[in-house]
Protein 1
Amino acid sequence: MRNPIVAANWKMHKTPSETEDFLRGFVVLAKAGEPVDIVIAPPYISLAAASAALTQHDSIKLAAQNMHYEQSGAFTGEISPLMLREMLIHYVILGHSERRAIFGETDEIINRKVLAAHQFNIKPILCVGETLEERDAGRLEEVLTTQLKGGLAGVSADQMINTVLAYEPVWAIGTGRTASSAQAQEAHAFIRSVLANLYDPETARRVRIQYGGSVKPGNMEELAMQPDVDGALVGGASLESGSFWEICRAAAAGATRKASA
Ligand code: PEP
């Protein structure tokens, strides 16, 4: 069985002191422990504060929201995998739809980042997903296949098992409009079938695929009960510690019900 993984994508929110405040509250809530992997992705500038706040809580892992693919060089404003590794950052979100749409990241650039992350033992959380126009035009499978093939080029089966995928329909991100659990399951099952073709069925079975797009405490459990949904990548609802904790608990509850069904 795959352990669910729930990640908080804070985007451009929370200063270092706000990060400390959040984590002070969150670690108290999380003390009891839940059978989900919990990842928090603050802005770069708040990673050091987060790392210090989590020294006694190493089950909660940190992620960066992006990185460059080179290890150093003349890339003003960029952060490298070497730098993240030294800060003991375990995950990096790559290919988020905001990076693709606002910052022009292509599958080729994202692929270079995925490969660089693995080189430095940082697990990529690779985001894929279609726009509403693409879905309405019947292009869901084509878009997902292109993003997966492009983003995962040259990734070995061993590296794939240490890659997390996030299915994030662009029309559901920050809009309050969640994909139904049936829509999420359909896309996740399709993604797993693409992985089985690119790798093998066993590798495909082991890869965790998060759902992302307006996840809240109230819709997480049903999403997590879907056979191919392994947790969530959460934006807006991860900014408040109580709400993020409820999502973690709901993901755990959904996975437990799924296992016993
Ligand atoms: C995201 O940005 O990855 C995301 C899913 O955002 P939200 O939960 O706010 O829709």
Protein 2
Amino acid sequence: MKVQLGPVAATGAFDVIAILVNEDSLAKDEVVNSFDKALGGALRTLIKQEEWTGKKDSQLSLATAGKLAIRKIYLLGVAKDDAVALRAACARAAKNALSDKATKLGIVLSGAPSDTFVRAAGEGVTLGAYRFTKYLTGDRKPKASIAAVTIAVREGKAKPAKGAQAALTDALTKGVGVGQAVNLTRDLVNEPPNELYPETLAERAKALCSTHKIKCAVWDHKKIQAEGMKLLHAVGRGSRHEPRFVHMTYTPAGPAKKGRKKIVVVGKGLTFDSGGLCIKQAAGMGDMKCDMAGAAVSVGLVAALAALKPDVEVHAIFAAAENMPDGNAYRPGDIWGSLDGKTVEIINTDAEGRLVLADALAYAAKLEPDVLIDHATLTGACMIALGSATAGMYSNDDALAAKYVKAAKEAGESLWHMPLIEDLRESMKSDCADLKHTGDRYGGSIIGGLFLREFIGKTKHWIHMDIAGPAFAERPTALSPKGGTGYGLLTLVHFIESTAAGH
Ligand code: BES
Ligand code: MN
Ligand code: ZN
């Protein structure tokens, strides 16, 4: 799908077009007027008949019935200066175009031309055009797909500054690049677990890194054991598919700079979580192919960094395993050491995510990051607490947490800052090991966070994102079809860019 900036008018060669309008200026919107004129007044008549006000996230569509070469016009309401609503509207335009089997889509943005808006538009159309169709055949295979999207910015009152056009083009390219990175994350989550297991997930990461000339180290099972990642080994040993540990390193071009920040991102990569010996019930077990969504954020991040080239050092890491019941599987009652050195008494083999993350975090801490961020589909309890669209965020640094909340707001992702309630640590006390990996049922998501905190060493600035809910959607969302959403990556990218900018 080609995405470019260019003019979008009633005479243009488009199958469908979308006009984004602000509620407050709909009445005198000149783009709406020009299309209305070309349609002999049909557009304004429809707006009146439908009493459409241009409210944010609402839409009105009109079939041109042969009056124009353009088959359909979608009017999409957005709020003024709202990049999140604009991104969603562009995603909706792409989604509409797909269902109308259009191949050429034109979009007229609302508001004055700005890099932020064009960037959001590039992200939006790319995200909205996403479908996972790899395993469909025959009639189920979609025939039409969008070939080209043209995005038009409205003329501002002021004369465009020199270089403004180049900046807009750059913003669009970056937006499309970020959208593709999120779509890669979605693809990985949507892949079935017979195809995507630790080894193939690591291969996908390796291939991506070699395309972009990014350093990538992959540890196999032997190396994982040799390095002392006993918890990752314990979780992975019940599967025919060996675990993998992957460390990708993005270093900005140019000489090392003083004060350049180092961000380390870690992901839970359970390519399938059956629960192990403490096996899950059948209903919904198939959804546990999504249990590597945190790792997929780490991989998608590398693709985003390749598109954005920010001035920050970023380490994208994941620990991948398959949690299976087997004669060789780890069991409740086991005591395992860890990379950090602490011993852990195993209570429930279905609480495997925190174990593989414990070793990955201990490894990450040794890199002495300025900021350490992990993503994990960690607990069902987090979904009970916050619903399925919102991630639970935990941190040992309130100022950092506030920055992350801001990044999420700008990115349009829903998260909630959850407390690490110290009293709940009590329930992780073990009689025979340094700690148990689970505690009371109540406060389950918090206990997951408290357990992880035991393994971050001296790291002062750490964020844990429990993405069990939003990583995988039961229903389509504004930006995504059912299934893998790529949740977390947009916020992370916003955060990294603002860190690069010195904020
Ligand atoms: N992968 C699951 C958590 C999960 C649940 C992710 C639903 C996405 C959707 C995790 O490994 C798990 O099984 N957690 C247990 C922990 C419990 C045994 C302490 C849970 O949430 O029940
Ligand atoms: Mn589990
Ligand atoms: Zn799991």
